[in-house]
Amino acid sequence: MLVVDCDPQANATAGLGVDPSTCNKNMYDVFMSGIDDFPHVTLQEIIRKTASGIDLAPSHLDMVGAEPYIYHAKFPTGILKEALSGVKNQYSYIFIDTPPSLGQFVVNGLFAADHVIVTLDSGSFALDGVSTLSMIFADMKDVLGKEIVPDMAIVSRWGEGLMRSCSSTEERVRRDIFTMLRNIFYKPPEVSPEDRKTAEENKNEHERLLATLNEIKRKFPSVYTVPYSPAVYEAQRRGMPISHFARDSTAGIAYKTIAEEVMRWS
């Protein structure tokens, strides 16, 4: 499997345990190949093996400077697709990570891809993001000459607000051993205003999440939620995929299910 990181933030690169500053050549060089007097660099030249066994075409913050040049290329939307043509037969799966904002890297990724997966978080602005994407995909047909139809949406950090509220309540209970003992041997006290407020906030958050999910399901043929899990952040910190670091975590199990569907795509 190959991961092609086209995001200048290089999160996919760092998430696979590679420091972008250690890469002498990266996707910046690939995108700049053939533009003006820049040297030609193939995708094969920059691919690195990672500790997880996944191959990586790394990104770098320098890519921010490449985008203005891409607009002046002979075929600006097809740079990535052309670069991938030299390696696509070597891999069963190639994943392209693009930035969250529209630009030439996203357009190149959409043009090169056979399938499109949209990632969202469960925050308040998730639905705004879906509406924006719908308009972008509609406009892409004129730009790319092909219709972009997303195959899947993944809503990450599902239930994060609920988890944090529960965690804070549990932490208060753990700190107050006397409250725990009193509740065991005596009638529990009335619910405090603070706990009543927390319960109401959890109810409202739960209703918001369900409404968000139902709206997303109306716009995508396949939708998955990935539960909020600290294991994801720890895996990122260690530079390992969640499948390698904590496959039995709630997030790891969710991503395994997602991977199984992706592997059924022809």
Summary?
By secondary structure, the protein is α/β, with parallel strands linked by helices. It has 13 helices and seven strands.
Described by strand count, sense and barrel closure, the largest sheet is: 4 strands, mixed
CATH topology: Rossmann fold
Given as residue ranges, the uncertain stretches (5+ residues, pLDDT < 50) are: none
Shape: elongated
CATH superfamily: P-loop containing nucleotide triphosphate hydrolases
Give the topology string: H per helix, E per strand: EHHHEEHHEHEHEHHHEHHH
CATH architecture: 3-Layer(aba) Sandwich
Strand content: 5-15%
Our count of helices gives 13
The class by helix and strand makeup works out as alpha/beta
CATH class wording: Alpha Beta
Number of domains: 1
The total strand number stands at 7
Radius of gyration: 22 Å
* Biggest β-sheet: strands ordered side by side in the sheet: 2-3-1-4
